[in-house]
Amino acid sequence: MRLPEPHRPRLPRTRTGQRRLVQAVMAACVLALLPATWLYVSTDGLLRTTANAPRTEVAVVFGAGLWDGEPSPYLAHRLDAAATLYREGRVRVVLVTGDNSREDYDEPDAMRAYLRRHGVPDGRIVSDYAGFDTWDSCVRAKKIFGVDEAVLISQDFHIRRALALCRAAGVTSYGVGVDDKHDVTWYYGGSREILAAGKAVLDAVFEPDPRFLGPKETGVSRALASGR
Questions:
Q1: Going by DSSP bridges, is the β-strand pair 125-128/172-178 parallel, antiparallel, or unpaired?
Q2: Least C-beta-crowded within 10 Å: which of 19, 97, 135, 173?
Q3: Backbone region of residue 68 per phi and psi (left: phi > 0; alpha: psi in -120 to 50; beta: other values)
Q4: What is the model's pTM?
Q5: How many CB atoms lie within 10 A of CB 49?
Q6: What is the dihedral of CA 149, 153, 156, 158, to 10 degrees?
Q7: Which phi and psi angles does 209 have, rounded to 5°?
C-alpha cells in the first residue's frame, strides 16, 4: 500500500502574495526582537565595572552552574568580581543566589566556599537557596531578604535581563557585566537571552510568585549590622 505523500506548504505564486509573506516574516522578526529591545532601553546607563560600581551595601551574584561541585568558570568570574568589590569597600555583603533543588547540587554553598577562599568573610556572605531563575532571585532578594538596592553581577550577555527584572521587582539596581572569552558557551548564552527576553517581559508585567517564596530571612540585615 502506497502511503500518501506529506502535504508541503506552497509558497504564494503572485507578487501580492509573496509581498504579504515577506511582510509577515518581517513583522514576526520585529515582534521577536521587541523584548530584547526593551531590555536594552530599560537598562540604558545602568552598567558599571568593578572599578566604578557605586558603593552599595549589597552585591547579588547569580548562579551559573557547577563543575564537579565547584563553580563553573563563568560563575567563578562572577564571584571574582564580587570579591573585588568587597575588598575595595564598594559592597558590604554578598548575596549568592542559586539552585539547590537537588541534594547533590548546591550552588549557594559552592559560591560561599569560593568567596571565603578569596577573602570574603563568611559572616558577610548570605545564601539564597531558592534562586531557581533570575526572576525568582530578584523577587526573593526584595521580599525575603529585604534588599532595596544592590549591585548585580553576571556575564555581560545576562546582566541587562537581571537588571530589568530586579528593578521590576523593586530593587534599585546597577549591573557589573563580567566579560568572558567569546567561546561556544558565550554564544549559546547570548542566543538564549533572545528567547529569555520574552519570558522576562511576561515576568515584569504579570509579576508571578517565585517557585518558592517562604518566610522572610534576616541574613542580610544581620550581616550589615555586624562589624566589618
A1: unpaired
A2: 19
A3: left
A4: 0.83
A5: 12
A6: -80
A7: -70, 150
